[in-house]
Amino acid sequence: MASKYQHLTSEEAEHFLTKGWLHVPNAIKPEYLDRWMKDFWTRIDYDEHDKTTWTSPYLHLPRHREVSAEEFAPVAWDKIVDICGGEDRIDPIRERYYGDALIINFGTEEIAKREPVFEPSAQAGWHTDDDWYRMFLDSSGNAMTVIHVFTDIPEQGGGTCVCEDGIAGVVKYLYSHPEGLDPPLAAKHCAHVNECKQYSTVVAKKGDVILLHGLLPHAPSPNFLHYARVITNPHVSLRSPYNLNRPDGDYSLLEQVILRGLGRDSVPEFKPTRERKTWYPRNAGFKRAYATAELERMIAAAKAQGLDESSVDSLYLRRGTKEFEDFEKRNGFDKEVNGESGLLMEQHRLPLQT
Ligand SMILES: [Fe+2]
């Protein structure tokens, strides 16, 4: 069957529509994987060959570098554009660049000794990503969650788990809460996921990209292999809220997933009952707090090789420039902190982490 999309096959479109995600193999330019992993151990100050130095089993790092989404992973970007219904629907600034905010699931020696049994329906931590805006059914701030795979992720290796039949419960919850949800989301909209039946845990190769609908519930799975599993987890943000009432039926795949979950052809009656709001991303608090110490280690490592500070590639060395200002805008760091919920200053925890 001929596809009506430019870059998605009919099978890929159907997979995204029915399961809420799509695996795009070998999609990241290798030069970025190599360049951004080169000083990985320097940044975190762990010894690659001595696991006793891996003191935190889970780390979320800040960005020091970023490039445009289409430069980083062109094939994946083309598919993102199709899924969003055209590039003109994508926010031209917010989250348009992808970077090296690495997320590492190391596992632990203790977890590696356990029977490697992972039961998603018994799992805690199911969520959708949103730490920076009041979320309504039609909110498209985190239209897609994108997993960039920086190391191979074997079976039992701590890949993200998604709940394919959980999206319907999320959209029904949001439909019945037109007042919207403010971060931190208490995961009430994902409370049903433990009753679901269809789960899939990421197994991938370095360089792969996995595209998730922004309302697809997901959770970390245990890394039973006790190695450094590295991903990043940026998003796609749209220019405007979803339109769930298009008389011409020209719904994007993202919108179709929502309508399918609701069992509707259109939702003309949905209207948020509170104003839309955005804030500084709450989870950036603890991640950005690492940046200064990381930078000091990167500079020290350069000097140890006889190089000077200018050889270190970090946006944090270019504060006060237009480039830094643009970086701040792209990531929402120019917005006000939500005075009620403040910033999260504590690293997320993993399932089975003691
Ligand atoms: Fe997430």
Automatic annotation (TrEMBL):
Species the sequence originates in: Vermiconidia calcicola
Identification of the protein by name: Uncharacterized protein
Superkingdom assignment: Eukaryota
